[in-house]
Amino acid sequence: MVAWVLVFHLMGLVLWLGSLLVVTHVLAIHTQTTSEEARAALGHVETKLLKGLAHPGAALMLISGSILLVEDPYFLRTTWLHLKLLLVLVLIALDLRVYFRTRAFQAGRIELKRAECMALHGVIALVFTAILVLVLIKPFGMPLC
User: Fold this and answer.
1) What is the spatial distance between Cα 98 and Cα 80, in angstroms, rounded to a whole number?
2) How far apart are CA 12 and CA 5, in angstroms?
3) Does residue 145 belong to any structural domain of this protein?
4) Is the pTM value of this prediction over 0.90?
5) Which of 130, 3, 128, 15 has its CA nearest to residue 61?
6) Domain tally for the chain?
7) Domain ranges, residue 71
8) Is 142 domain-assigned?
9) Collapsing DSSP states into helix, strand and coil, what is residue 143?
10) 7-39 pLDDT per residue, tens
11) Helix %, strand %, coil % of the chain (to 5)
């Protein structure tokens, strides 16, 4: 059963982070587009990616990750997992920032700059890379107590 839960955990990861990376890139393009028709289409794509893929992927990842911890609570005693969970909280904050900035931009309440979108893209990719290093290499692998 643990193997299947891990499969769903990884599927959630791909959906969530892949969608966030695509949304930030599409947003960067959206900031430089002047055609109203193109802006509407890009806004539609952004909303579909966030609500249809990123957020369900995040939910799938968080639920399956919780199940994995219940199945083997030993990992809660490891430093690498504590750091990973901290980075997951950072990703949740980044997701919320992307979501609310996207909605405000689409509604015309704010102006986004391409540089901000690409900075968000880069930070999300960096946090994702750090999580992969923590999970695959497991530095600080000794239990806390």
Assistant:
1) 27
2) 11
3) no
4) yes
5) 15
6) 1
7) 2-137
8) no
9) strand
10) 999 999 999 999 999 999 999 999 999 999 999
11) 85, 0, 15
